[in-house]
Design goal:
By secondary structure, the chain is mainly α. The chain folds into three domains: about 130 residues, Serine Threonine Protein Phosphatase 5, Tetratricopeptide repeat, CATH 1.25.40.10; about 100 residues, Alpha Horseshoe (Serine Threonine Protein Phosphatase 5, Tetratricopeptide repeat); about 80 residues, Serine Threonine Protein Phosphatase 5, Tetratricopeptide repeat. The chain has 24 helices and no strands. The longest helix has 17 residues. The chain is elongated. It starts with about 35 loop residues before the first helix and ends with a helix.
Length: about 425
């Protein structure tokens, strides 16, 4: 998820001027003070942090002023990557002013940035119990959508945020993503276009338009939106990888390879560029080169779960189940493993005639996503091969009830026929 422009949470932005704290004194004028520099300066985060710490070391400031020092110190520390010190500063502000909504929002967004989602939700709700703000409603809406899978409440929150701040660009974009989750695509497009009305160069709003056209399978229009996205965010490797994906969908694989290479050049440790290039190479018949591209991604440090999964998928088609199994086991050992990983492992185990391993992987796939049909299907095949026909039929029925593609009926019938279950095969054929 692309990071929001937290214009309502972070207050004054820091301006990087490339000087260390030691390069010149903090106080350069008789009218300056550590407190004033802390609260009003747009200097480097190092210098602001130093000024705020010096101001806090002095005595005499009122609690509200000291809370302001802590807030500014927390923002500076967050910019410097010291999230523990930042959290301590924000909590100190809240300790001085229990109703300090600004500090709560700053802390909530920092928790959001570092994926401490439950704490972020709690902090935003605490803030909103005191006073509604666009910042807290926006942050909570995003977490409700992504972390808690509650798009209806997320929509209520983001609409509240936009009532408070009608020109909240990030909020308009978030509203668009919520509408996608609710399958209200026309409303999503309207939200992204409203964001573009505020700022025609908003790359993330153009990306929302891209997504609308992609979901409608209008890949030419999506490609046009991708080009605008890249125009306004030329250094974003993800956008260029997505452009490569769209070019592949349009069967422009040579162009897709060039777009993927641009993404790799921008961020060699991001996996999607390698995956898109390998797919395009494979589509052109260069399957050995595609394997080398996957391996190049691993060698460059881009070997995340996504890359290993698709490398395994590629090898399952063009190499051997053994080599593919090695890659899917790598994927499963990494964070973010999902039902698709376990389903591919189950398929490969069946190819290797390791039916017990296939059964274990299929069960794990169902546990990871009970709504996906593929874990049930591979569970059914494994049970059938292990001699448990009745359980196999139960699992196959569960797969069909979850919209298993009709082609899998022929595959399952083939499994039954291979085991001599002719009458059962006929019943399955008639039933589905």
């Amino acid at each position: 998820m692309l990071l929001p422009l937290r214009i309502f949470a972070l207050g004054l932005a820091f301006t990087w001027i490339g000087m260390s704290v030691a390069a010149r004194p903090l106080i350069t004028s008789s009218e300056d003070s550590y407190g004033r520099i802390c609260l009003e300066s747009s200097d480097t985060p190092e210098r602001i942090a130093a000024a705020c710490e010096a101001a806090l070391a002095e005595s005499g400031a009122l609690p509200a002023t000291r809370a302001g020092f802590h807030r500014k110190l927390g923002s500076a520390k967050e910019r410097l990557g010291d999230t523990a010190a930042a959290a301590s500063a924000f909590l100190s502000a809240i300790g001085l002013l229990p109703n300090d909504v600004e500090a709560m929002n700053l802390l909530g967004w920092m928790y959001w940035d570092i994926d401490r989602n439950d704490e972020a939700v709690a902090m935003f709700r605490r803030s909103l119990s005191l006073r509604p703000t666009a910042s807290a409603n926006g942050g909570l809406a995003n977490l409700l959508r992504i972390h808690l899978n509650q798009p209806e409440e997320a929509l209520q929150r983001i609409e509240t945020a936009l009532l408070l701040e009608p020109e909240y660009s990030w909020g308009l974009r978030e509203k668009g993503w919520i509408f996608f989750d609710l399958d209200r695509d026309a409303d999503a497009l309207e939200a992204f276009e409203a964001a573009l009305f505020l700022d025609s160069e908003d790359a993330f709003a153009h990306y929302g338009v891209l997504t609308f056209h992609e979901r409608a399978e209008d890949y030419e229009a999506a490609l046009e939106a991708a080009n605008r996205t890249i125009e306004f965010a030329p250094k974003d490797a993800d956008f260029r990888s997505h452009r490569a994906f769209l070019l592949r969908r349009l069967d422009r694989n040579q162009q897709a390879i060039r777009a993927a290479n641009e993404a790799i050049e921008l961020d060699p440790r991001e996996s999607d560029g390698y995956v898109q290039r390998a797919f395009a190479e494979s589509a052109l018949g260069y399957t050995a080169q595609a394997s080398r591209t996957f391996q190049a991604g691993i060698d460059a440090g881009a070997g995340d779960r996504f890359l290993h999964y698709w490398y395994a998928d590629h090898l399952s088609d063009y190499d051997s189940p053994e080599t593919a199994m090695h890659q899917i086991d790598k994927a499963i050992s990494l964070p973010g493993v999902g039902a698709e990983d376990w389903s591919l492992k189950a398929y490969l185990a069946l190819e290797l005639e390791d039916d017990e391993e296939a059964l274990r992987a299929a069960i794990s796939a169902v546990r990871a996503d009970a709504g996906s049909p593929y874990g049930y299907y591979y569970h059914a095949v494994a049970e059938l091969r292990l001699g448990r026909e009745n359980e196999a039929l139960v699992q196959f029925d569960a797969a069909m009830n979850r919209d298993l593609p009709i082609g899998f009926v022929r595959r399952f019938v083939g499994e039954l026929l291979a085991l001599g279950r002719f009458n059962t095969a006929m019943r399955v054929r008639r039933a589905y």
